[in-house]
Every structure is written in structure tokens, then in C-alpha cells.
Write a structure and sequence with these properties.
Blueprint lengths: L22 E2 L2 E2 L6 E5 L9 E5 L6 H12 L3 E9 L11 E8 L7 E10 L3 E10 L8 E10 L8 H13 L6
Antiparallel strand pairs: 1-2, 3-4, 5-6, 6-7, 7-8, 8-9
Helix pairs in contact: 1-2
Pfam families: Spo0M
Protein name: Sporulation protein
Organism: Streptomyces violaceusniger
Length: 177
């Protein structure tokens, strides 16, 4: 290779369906870094490797759920990766992503909601972990709900209305006892 020479190398990269989302509402999610390690064999090279970032945008079905959360007034809090397996899902990777939202006032019985997606090429498991506020005589608790979405027919459902039913049932009122 001559200094300043440009070489193009064709390659393909298969991304698992469960790859964590790194972009949300046009912004990079803090802490969600996904990249490809590239290495070039060059004699006497000081640094032959590099980590090139890859932006992972939501699948259309994931975007529909994220849009529904926004329509219901939820505000993005944070995102992180958890090591482990979500029971009852199609998960294959040894970790999963949690996207956390602050609950709006209409769900006054909830502190926050954590959302996880586990997809394959046909369907996606959507898992909600709802953090309930403590009551006057009770401690706070977590409530889990999950459902499966078809990746080709998801647009046939009003996801904001669907999610509102569950969220209102769990967090629509404060659990005093």
C-alpha cells in the first residue's frame, strides 16, 4: 500500500435480530455502543486494529412500541444491557437490553417502566417490567407483562391503546394497601 492510497473491500455483516438499539428519537443512546472490530495485517504497523461504531435503529415494530410510549406521555430515562435470560422469550444472546421510561402522571401508581425487545425474523417478544410505587402500608413491587408481536402485521394494532390497557390496570391508581 502506498501512502494515501484508497482500497475498497466488500464485506457483509449479519446482525442478530436481538442486537440492542443504539439510536432513539434521532439520538445515540448513552452507553449503548455496538461496533465492528476490524483488523488489517500490515508489516510493522503500530495499531492494526480498530473498533468502528455501528448505529442500530429500531425495527419498524420496535419503533411502533416506542412511538406508543411517547404518545402515552412516557419520557425516556436510560438504557442498559443486562446479562442473563428473560424467561419465556425467544432470546438467544446471553444479554438483553432494557429501555427505561419515567411514567407520566396518569399512571400515578408507577415509578417507571422498563421495556425489552427480543426479536427473531418473524416475531418479537415485548417484555414490560413496571416498577410500582409503594403504598401507605405496602412496599413497592415489580409487575411483569409480555406479549408477542408479528413483525409483518404489527401495524394492524393501535399499540398506544393496547399498552394503555395494561399500564392503566397496573399503574392507573396508587396502591394504598
Amino acid at each position: 500500500m502506498q501512502p494515501g492510497a484508497v482500497h475498497a473491500v466488500q464485506f457483509g455483516l449479519e446482525i442478530p435480530w436481538e442486537t440492542p438499539i443504539t439510536m432513539f428519537m434521532g439520538r445515540h443512546l448513552t452507553g449503548m455502543n455496538v461496533g465492528v472490530t476490524t483488523e488489517l495485517a500490515i508489516a510493522r504497523a503500530v495499531d492494526s486494529g480498530d473498533l468502528d461504531p455501528v448505529n442500530v435503529h429500531p425495527l419498524p415494530a420496535q419503533q411502533a412500541i416506542l412511538d406508543a410510549f411517547g404518545a402515552l406521555g412516557f419520557r425516556f430515562k436510560s438504557a442498559d444491557l443486562e446479562r442473563g435470560h428473560i424467561r419465556g422469550t425467544r432470546q438467544r444472546l446471553p444479554f438483553y437490553q432494557e429501555i427505561e421510561f419515567y411514567a407520566p402522571e396518569q399512571y400515578r401508581g408507577l415509578n417507571q417502566v422498563e421495556l425489552s425487545f427480543v426479536a427473531d425474523d418473524r416475531e418479537m417478544d415485548v417484555v414490560l417490567e413496571m416498577d410500582k410505587k409503594p403504598g401507605l402500608f405496602s412496599e413497592g413491587s415489580d409487575t411483569y407483562r409480555s406479549f408477542t408481536m408479528n413483525l409483518t402485521t404489527f401495524q394492524d394494532t393501535d399499540w398506544a391503546a393496547y399498552l394503555n390497557q395494561w399500564l392503566a390496570q397496573v399503574g392507573g391508581k396508587r396502591n394504598w394497601f
